[in-house]
Design goal:
The chain contains no helices and 14 strands. It is an all-beta fold. Strands 5, 6, 7, 8, 9, 10, 11, 12, 13 and 14 form a ten-stranded parallel sheet that branches. A two-stranded antiparallel sheet has the order 1-2. Strands 3-4 form a two-stranded antiparallel sheet. The N and C termini lie far apart (99 Å). The protein binds zinc ion. Zinc ion binds next to loops.
């Protein structure tokens, strides 16, 4: 039996941008990770919340990253859609959307985001770069439709006063007139 529950909608998609090669593609909203079709790298899609340290060199996701006030991160790179820093981070931070450094947040490293919000009391030691948000690859252009008039034409409202001529087939056949020579 197929699962027909309405909650499981495998067709729901959201656009993601590969944080390794920049390739954009729609993925299922339910996917937790996906392989980029272009660079074949595995991409993390889920939101990450860091409360302590992180064992790897990178913290990368297409989702959001929250670095809580209890966190002490010392890694190379943090990449996410939106990044919120409440704790201490020594790393380069790249956010495709908004990077927010909260009141007690502390970042040592260069930061790059479409929008950077630094709250009063936050510390940033590094360069700050504001970049335009990535533009999704435009879908292939359909062929341009022929130019149309500005006003919509309501075909149903156009009354055609057709002359009341019945179709020829409904006319009676013309009378056949036989003429006989007069017999005198
Ligand atoms: Zn890629």
């Amino acid at each position: 039996m197929p699962d027909l529950s309405p909650a499981a909608s495998p067709t729901a998609l959201r656009p993601i941008t590969c944080y390794r090669c920049g390739h954009s593609a729609p993925v299922s909203v339910k996917a937790m990770s996906v392989f980029c079709k272009k660079c074949q790298q595995r991409l993390v899609l889920e939101d990450l919340r860091i409360t302590g340290s992180h064992p790897g060199r990178e913290l990368t996701t297409c989702g959001n990253v929250i670095i809580e006030s209890s966190a002490k991160l010392h890694i190379q790179r943090v990449v996410g859609e939106n990044v919120l820093v409440r704790g201490r981070v020594v790393a380069t931070i790249v956010a495709r959307g908004v990077l927010e450094i909260a009141r007690d947040g502390c970042v040592e490293g260069d930061v790059e985001a479409a929008r950077v919000v630094i709250r009063e009391g936050a510390t940033v030691r590094g360069r700050c770069k504001i970049v335009a948000p990535p533009q999704p690859e435009p879908p292939p252009e359909p062929p341009a439709p022929p130019p149309q008039s500005e006003l919509p034409v309501e075909a149903s409202a156009v009354a055609v006063d057709a002359p009341a001529i019945p179709p020829a087939s409904s006319l009676p056949p013309p009378p056949t007139i036989l003429t006989r020579p007069k017999l005198d």
